[in-house]
Design brief:
single chain; alpha/beta; six-stranded parallel β-sheet; 37% helix
Length: 174
């Protein structure tokens, strides 16, 4: 199954913005890495919502596509997942390594595009992608996702597309 993210499901409320946490700009601009990258990605409620929907991650092999700074990868590793973070930018993978070491978790990194994965068939229990699909050929990415997922595995994606209610709330606030 592929999970999609909607604001009412994140908050448990009919109000689109209820339950959303936004970090103050001072935290995001902080020079203290533990303050800048708190235990959970406070600017992104989606990984927490997705963890709730996926269930226990301990011991599961998780692949994050287009990981960026790796907040979700670190969050999944803190939940006990065996995480591999991918991105086309080796510089962002350096950030992932720094952030994961701050939290004393292991995250494997791999520089590769999300639509041409270098992993064997049926390798992962979970494939996760955020803010990614609008950057690539969605069909190729989903075919690769299906290929690397184990039988019974789960994929979860969320994207800032025009019809995403959470993104539209954020756009009004920003």
């Amino acid at each position: 199954p592929i999970l999609a993210c909607a604001s009412a499901e994140i908050s448990g409320s009919k109000s689109p913005s209820a339950g959303m946490r936004i970090c103050p700009l001072s935290i995001l601009n902080s020079r203290d890495p533990k303050r800048r990258f708190p235990r959970t990605a406070c600017t992104s409620p989606e990984p927490q919502w997705i963890v709730q929907k996926l269930g226990a991650l301990r011991g599961k092999k998780i692949l994050e596509l287009g990981c960026g700074a790796g907040e979700a990868s670190v969050h999944f590793a803190l939940q006990g997942g065996d995480v591999t973070a991918t991105d086309i930018s080796s510089g962002m993978l350096d950030v992932v390594n720094a952030v994961s070491s701050l939290y004393h978790v292991s995250v494997t990194t791999c520089a590769c595009p999300a639509d041409a994965l270098p992993f064997a068939d049926e390798t992962f229990d979970v494939v996760y992608g955020a803010n990614l699909l609008h950057h690539l050929d969605v069909e190729k990415c989903l075919l690769e996702t299906r290929r690397v997922l184990r039988r019974g595995g789960q994929a979860a994606f969320w994207d800032p597309v025009a019809y995403n209610p959470v993104i539209n709330i954020y756009r009004r606030m920003a």
